Amino acid sequence: MSDRRLTPELLLGAYAAGVFPMAERRDDPDVFWVDPRQRGILPLDGFHLSRSLARRLRRGDVQASLDRDFEAVLDGCADRSETWINETIRALMIDLFAMGHAHSFEVRKDGVLIGGMYGIALGGAFFGESMFSRATDGSKMTMAFAVDHLRRCGFRLFDTQFLTDHLASLGGIEISRSAYRRMLAEALEIPADIHAIEIETDPQAVVQRITQTS
């Protein structure tokens, strides 16, 4: 599908139907739809906080933010030798951010961006698209802040698309396509608002809440 036919509205409809776009490579202008038989999700009450990650967060030397620098996160996720984020998807994500549907979570240390993740919010579903890390546990800390925030805002589904070893180490699981569709339908009916509250600025508070709910 070329970028002339793919619009932000069509993209939102695809997410609501349970499919998502990818490109073969960075320089391929076309995208294709993906609908995995086994879907990766991260239960919002099942985040696995390892002892080493908890120790790193308890140091309190990182700062989390939401939607502070969406394009920097988007480009950070695409900054690798092989990426499915082509110019078509990049432009559409920026459009969705302007529309209030795409969001980024950022983690900084000493003012420097060391981890980030972006995704799409629809109802009570958050579709995690990609993440990156530029320091030890950068992406894991980002995910901890994101899970804590989404849960506090009333989200019910955190879709990770696929299950990687990295996501499995954080509590990610695989469910069948049919089970995912049921969860998605229920989540879409929930009027969650990602900006209902401010993102937590105290890493130790995040650790405490995750420890209590996992």
Number of helices: 8
Number of strands: 9
Strand order of the biggest β-sheet = 4-5-6-7-8-3-9
What can be said about the biggest beta sheet?
A: 7 strands, mixed
Helicity level, as a percent range?
25-40%
What order do the helices and strands follow?
HEEEHEHHEEEHEHEHH
What is the level-2 CATH architecture name? 3-Layer(aba) Sandwich
**CATH class bucket:** Alpha Beta
What is the distance, rounded to the nearest whole angstrom, between the alpha carbons of the first and last residues?
41 Å
Poorly predicted runs are none
Shape, please?
globular
How many domain units?
1
Query: How large a portion of the residues is in β-strands, by DSSP E?
Result: 15-25%
Mean pLDDT: 95
The structural class is alpha+beta
| CATH evolutionary superfamily | Leucyl/phenylalanyl-tRNA-protein transferase, C-terminal domain
> What is the CATH topology?
Aminopeptidase
Rg from C-alpha positions?
16 Å
Written account of the structure:
The protein has 8 helices and 9 strands. It is globular, with a radius of gyration of 16 Å. Helix content is 38%, strand content 24%.
Supply database-style keywords:
38% helix; Aminopeptidase; 214 residues; 8 helices; 9 strands; two-stranded antiparallel ribbon; single chain; alpha+beta; 7-stranded mixed beta sheet
